[in-house]
Amino acid sequence: MGRFPEGFFWGGATAANQLEGGWNIGGRGLAKTDVTTGGTATTPRFVTYLNEDGTKGKLPQFGGVLPKGAKYHIFEDELYPNHVGNDFYHHYKEDIALFAEMGFKMFRMSIAWPRIYPNAIEEKPNEEGLKFYHDVFNELHKYNIEPLVTISHYDDPLYIETGLGGWQNREVIDHYVKYAKTLMDEYKDDVKYWLTFNEINCLLMMKMFAPNAPKEMIRPAYQQLHNQFVASAKTVEYAHENYPNMKVGCMLAGMASYPWTCDPKDILLNQFSMQEGIYYCGDVQALGEYGYYAKRMWQEDGVVLDATPEDFEHLKNGKVDFFSFSYYNTSCNTTHDFGEYAGSGNMTLGAKNPYLQYSEWGWSTDPSGLRWLLGELYARYKMPLMVVENGLGAIDKVEEDGMVHDTYRIDYMAQHIDAMADAINDGVDLIAYTSWGCIDLVSAGTGEMRKRYGFIYVDLDDELKGSLARSRKESFFWYKKVIETNGEDVSWK
Ligand code: BGP
Fold first, then answer.
1. Which residue among 45, 230, 271, 331 is the one 20 to 30 A from 449 at the CA level?
2. 452 C-beta closer than 6 A to ligand 1
3. From 20, 139, 199, 474, the catalytic residue
4. Does the reported pTM lie above 0.85?
């Protein structure tokens, strides 16, 4: 056998809110991303709203609470990058043809929930939304590209928050399950691989990023997560009962971390961090129950879950079929003062690792960490793994010959592909690699277009100006060769 098994799924990954555009057409409802402005590596994205007295208000994307009586609002003088994405809504045929040219075997995409149920609560789905995704799947199948579909990727209908009080309301579980069942019934012949929630563990991110935040701000996340776990498990059960050929996976942010020193206190701190960051969610979704350490976390944060005995039954019966995750970087935990090793950029978690290089956005490059994480996850969950996001966000420059020569991206990805090959050689059952943002799209963290990940360049800038024309970067031709050789040859001139 070569480095990668036959039938390995090479491909790329995207999310509806970051690439589709078409935010107010085809009967689509609003998502939070539609009231979120652009930001940069150092300034946050804002959500915009109208105060009761008619004045304009803005809150940082994460961690704020709307003032009493305020309503989310779209202002003419603000830029909302997700309204445009890269306009995949109108370019999908051209884009999928380019994916096919690279030889993609799999395309990870998400369905915009507000395109199917604009406010989540409707009884009947929006036919125009259903048709759009039929068209996309038909196009993919034309080229034998297997879709991998995320059911919820950061664009739940805004009404869930404004009208239902968010995911802490158990009613939302039913709306999600209704939506997921609609998708499975509708696309049973089109889609075999599903992911229930993108980076579900990010709900606990505040605990990780702002451990000193008031407990009452962290607490709701536990209930929201519990409700999402139940929604996910019920979806898995539905698939298993009705469509035995379907495979449903979980999707977590691969928030891998190391102890910064060999001080046993750092080792312990890092163990807690991995439990809180990854295993809390992974254990429920893949093993069917909360880990032993969950009690400690609940105690620490004063959490009393509103959960029924039936919930725990569903969690047990709705274990996922495979485990998927995103992997970009690693971080370090320490009880020591890290002074000059403090991070910068939009991922300032913990101390900087002196052995790694960091991007302008503060993200480290750590291919060995991927091999390590794959091993940890496989040992624990013993089920097929997929790396469904990985890549380098960078500023690309179109050179005089009209092309982006993104050898830095090739270099980053080649190292990670080698790390995956090593993990497979170690014995890990890895079945897919879909690199993030295979075509340039809006950054989730900063809302920028200039933070590009693609093999395909899209002519659009942060002011949302540009022709939207697509062109092949140097990495396009490199990835084509990687796929052609099934990952044997990752070299480049
Ligand atoms: C993950 C998200 C993606 C994606 C990626 C890159 O967390 O699942 O939606 O955007 O990160 O992050 P960013 O866009 O902030 O560079």
1. 331
2. no
3. 199
4. yes
